[in-house]
Write a structure and sequence with these properties.
With about 210 residues, the protein is of the alpha/beta class. The chain has 11 helices and 8 strands. About 50% of the residues lie in helices and about 15% in strands. The structure holds SN-glycerol-3-phosphate.
Length: about 210
């Protein structure tokens, strides 16, 4: 399973990358706005740090505008993936960008039928949002199992990128289901490496080590 970091903060992306946690990056307008920097500048900096796919989202709501923005974003570097919101105009843009050889990631997917339409349009990545479904009392991870099943049934090339991850159990369940990619906030990535028994064990070994060191 690939790990992407869900962030537009170049410092945390660099920290995560040092630790081997960054196979790619996803950004969205909310994350870029939080960085307080211009969109193209943020994506350019991330692409200088990361070789894997870097998703950059369009702001247009019509296919023509999305395709135009997509071409501009794709010029930044060959690893840029154009992030398109799930809607009919978005699927037109995905199909056109795919035929121009540009990679796409369809975002804000909340149902398995939306995911099926994303696969049919020929997107590179499909981003079902698990946390936001959990927030409204639906089981977000069911959407991942169903999407994986549909893509496998029809041998679709689109990869499932689990988005809106809030906690480690989302990642564990994604790995057990066999999802292709998870995109994870830095804070949650950091939490994955820790265990209280590890900390306790290290403290004991250090204490015992003092008895024979020097
Ligand atoms: O990749 C999409 C993700 O950033 C959305 O996460 O926590 O805002 O639902 P969240």
């Amino acid at each position: 399973m690939q790990f992407y970091i869900d962030s537009a903060d170049i410092n945390e992306i660099k920290e995560a990358n040092k630790r081997g946690w960054v196979d790619g990056v996803t950004t969205n307008p909310t994350l870029v706005a939080k960085s307080g920097r211009p969109h193209h500048e943020v994506i350019t900096d991330i692409c200088a740090e990361v070789d894997g796919y870097v998703s950059a989202e369009v702001l247009s709501m019509d296919a023509e505008g999305m395709v135009k923005e997509g071409h501009e974003l794709a010029k930044i570097k060959e690893n840029v993936v154009v992030k398109i919101p799930m809607c009919e105009e978005g699927l037109i843009a995905v199909k056109r960008l795919a035929s121009d050889g540009i990679k796409t990631n369809v975002t804000l997917v909340f149902s398995p039928l939306q995911a099926l339409m994303v696969g049919k349009a020929g997107a590179t990545l499909c981003s079902p949002f698990v946390g936001r479904l959990d927030d409204i009392s639906h089981d977000g991870m069911d959407l991942i199992s169903q999407t994986m099943q549909i893509y496998q049934n029809y041998d679709m090339d689109t990869k499932v990128l689990v988005a809106s991850i809030r906690h480690p159990i989302h990642i564990l369940e994604s790995a057990l289901i066999g999802a292709d990619v998870v995109t994870v906030p830095y804070k949650v990535l950091k939490g994955l490496t820790h265990h209280p028994l590890t900390d306790k064990g290290i403290a004991q070994f250090m204490k015992d080590g003092e008895k024979f060191a020097k």
